[in-house]
Design brief:
4 helices, alpha+beta, globular, 5 strands
Length: about 140
Amino acid sequence: MTALERVTQRAMRHGDPERPSVPSPLLSLEEFFDGNDEIGSIGCNLESEPEPAEFFELFMDIRSRSEVSDVRIQITSVEAPGVAWPFSDTVWIMTEVGEDEVRNWFPEHLAPDEVWEGFIPNAKYEECAIAEGHKPVAVWYD
């Protein structure tokens, strides 16, 4: 199985993630980035057009922080299953700190458009463990 086939299968585990009845897939960093060299699969509107490897390094550094328990990549769409890498515009950081501190962890050329605390009400997400005292903080790229 190729990396693209693997990540597509993982992203579509519960069905098409664009359907409101399907819980949004929350992939680990390794699941999303292993084999991913498709610019625009994350941070597609950034002028710097960063490589996925640059995001992977940043999110690995963030995940290694003592105040962070996990980082998950939300799959927003799978426009061409098996042809194009699944797309993400939102990354969830499970942390004990607030959105202002999280925002400061990003270099300017990889800075998200918005940062907020908590999952979106009434939206469905795959289950993922959140350590006691931690909360999900979203970083969103328009």
